[in-house]
From TrEMBL:
Source species of the chain: Holothuria leucospilota
Entry annotated with the keyword Oxidoreductase: yes
Family to which this protein belongs: Belongs to the zinc-containing alcohol dehydrogenase family. Quinone oxidoreductase subfamily.
Main location: mitochondrion
InterPro entries assigned: ADH-like_N (IPR013154), ER (IPR020843), GroES-like_sf (IPR011032), NAD(P)-bd_dom_sf (IPR036291), Quin_OxRdtase/zeta-crystal_CS (IPR002364), RTN4IP1 (IPR037397), YIM1/Zinc_Alcohol_DH_Fams (IPR050700)
Transmembrane stretches, start-end: none
Keywords, sorted A to Z: Mitochondrion, Oxidoreductase, Transit peptide
GO MF term set: oxidoreductase activity; zinc ion binding
Record protein name field: Reticulon-4-interacting protein 1, mitochondrial
Domain Enoyl reductase (ER): 128-465
Source domain of life: Eukaryota
Tagged with keyword RNA-binding: no
GO cellular component terms attached to this protein's record: mitochondrion
Species lineage: Eukaryota, Metazoa, Echinodermata, Eleutherozoa, Echinozoa
Length: 486
């Protein structure tokens, strides 16, 4: 007997893409997900919601005992069977073939529906390329500490360059030490650092967050990640989601927000109270970190210059940058110096920017050069924890001397979970001072394609994975409304 694992969803999100029959628009099925074992060619009931026929879902993977991989194949309109057909075709096909067969049964709360299923997570069992990512049925995470929160319905998560690097093994030496596990014992490992979702359970010490709250979070890299139906986070990592954002929009923010907070607020010590009138340069203004950094600094009254490709000028000016300089310009240094030197330089690009930055930083002890691309982890990967730690400390010392000889300060910064930062950023979002900037959104089952998009580079904002198939919202994309009129 051939058995297929079928996983899918019938969501409001679909209405954006294909015309639906009235029955499918039934509010009872909004947000519904199904995940079922089905014999091919048979009508199955996905209790308690829907009955449909699996004739358009072909087995790509037999299911031997103990292997839980959800995978679907669809027959396209040309008759070919394929795995990664575009969402539009996939849904269109599903509806075209099945709309007369789909009928809705009684509805139940999504919470009780979720409880009846094993949660799914994208996990890796080894480091490597995208083929290591497997959609897997896993154990329901359980609250073990008083300050933990279970986010049962992860609505959306973002994919960051760090996820792609971690998939390939970057940081494993350091993170395994922090996790207290031997190499290899970290698997199966769920990647993903941030998400937006709904709290269903809280630890007994949790006070400010309650069941049912919409939250967003950046979680510590030592935990199991957010490319999953269910995530555990601590109260230090979670904040209430801004009420004016969809979960998709909200998920684009926590990781880049806490990264910028770490660089600007914690390391450079630039805060709302002392920021007004300062001049900042963001090297790399058009990606996830840069598009958020522009808005945060602008909101605090900083004059912001960025480097980016010329085709991103509209985006960065729309977000509030005062000056943008094409990093491919042969006169980049002169152009960046046109308005004087900088109190703060945030480097999201790498060491290649350092010699130029020495000439751009103000010759004052308070002037800060903060790089987010520090050699710390690379050194540990190459040389091991002790020797790598030593060599990176030496590098930090030498670079600090180079900058301090001119009067400025050289610093490294790392993304840190920070519930205070999320709370402050939520206020700025609700005040309309910070907007989500999303390059592209992918369905949860297409996570490998989302990783490919991040790997391809040239991002304009964030890549977000729509885990619970929620409302896409109206975030900033290619066509950028100006947030600030100069
Ligand atoms: N230390 C930490 O904890 C931490 C945290 C977050 C991120 N990071 C690191 O910070 C870096 C940026 O992250 P991200 O999420 O913003 O990446 P991203 O979303 O991929 O954005 C990178 C942006 O830089 C632009 N770019 C490429 N080369 C450039 C150059 N020479 N000058 C100016 N812009 C350039 C790219 O567009 P075009 O190529 O089209 O110009 C793209 O828009 C990554 O290396 C990431 O690993 C570190």
């Amino acid at each position: 007997m051939r058995i297929a694992v079928v996983r899918g969803s019938l969501m409001t999100g679909l209405t954006n893409r294909v015309p639906l029959s009235d029955s499918i628009r039934s509010p009872n099925v909004d947000g519904m997900r199904f995940n079922v074992l089905a014999k091919l060619g048979e009508a199955v009931t996905v209790r308690p919601y829907v009955t449909f026929v699996v004739h358009n879902c072909h087995v790509s993977q037999l299911r031997p005992a103990g292997v839980n991989v959800a995978q679907r194949l669809y027959r396209g309109s040309n008759g070919n069977i394929s795995r990664n057909i575009p969402r539009k075709t996939q849904h269109h096909h599903l509806l075209q073939h099945d709309k007369t067969l789909i009928r809705f049964c009684s509805s139940k709360s999504s919470a009780s529906q979720s409880q009846s299923q094993s949660p799914l997570a994208w996990q890796i069992g080894q480091y490597g390329g995208n083929s290591t990512l497997k959609l897997t049925e896993c154990q329901m995470p359980v609250i073990k500490k008083a300050n933990e929160v279970l986010i049962k319905q992860v609505h959306a998560a973002s994919v960051n360059p760090i996820d792609v690097k971690n998939r390939s093994g970057y940081g494993a030496v350091f993170l395994n030490k922090a996790r207290g596990v031997k190499p290899g014992d970290e698997f199966p490992l769920t990647l993903g650092r941030d998400c937006s979702g709904v709290v269903a359970e809280i630890g007994r010490g949790v006070r400010d967050i309650k069941e049912g709250d919409n939250v967003w979070t950046t979680i510590n890299a030592v935990r199991q990640g957010t490319f999953a139906d269910y995530v555990i986070a601590t109260t230090d990592e979670v904040g209430l989601k801004p009420s004016n954002l969809t979960h998709i929009e909200a998920a684009s923010i926590p990781y880049v927000a806490t990264t910028n907070w770490s660089a600007i607020y914690a390391v450079a010590k630039i805060r709302p109270a002392n920021a007004l009138g300062k001049r900042a340069l963001i090297l790399g203004g058009s990606g996830g970190v840069g598009t958020f950094g522009i808005q945060l600094l602008k909101a605090w009254g900083v004059n912001v210059t960025v480097t980016c490709s010329e085709n991103a000028f509209d985006l960065v000016y729309g977000l509030g940058a005062h000056h943008a300089v094409d990093y491919k310009s042969p006169n980049i240094l002169e152009e960046l110096l046109k308005h004087g030197q900088y109190d703060l330089i945030v480097n999201t690009i790498g060491e290649s920017m350092e010699d130029m930055s020495v000439k751009l930083i103000k010759e004052k002890a308070y002037a800060q050069y903060v790089t987010l691309v520090a050699p710390f982890i690379d050194e540990m990967e190459k040389k091991g924890l002790f020797a790598g730690g030593l060599s990176s400390s030496l590098m930090l010392f030498q670079k600090s001397r180079k900058f301090s000889a001119l009067g400025g300060t050289y610093r490294w910064a790392f993304a840190q979970p920070n519930s205070f930062a999320l709370k402050e950023v939520a206020k700025l979002v609700e005040d309309g001072k910070i907007k989500p900037v999303i390059d592209e959104t992918f369905d949860f089952q297409d996570l490998p394609a989302a990783f490919e998009r991040v790997e391809k580079g040239h991002l304009r904002g964030k890549v977000v994975v729509n885990v619970a198939h929620g409302d896409l919202g109206s975030h900033v994309t290619g066509e950028v409304p100006r947030l600030f009129d100069e």
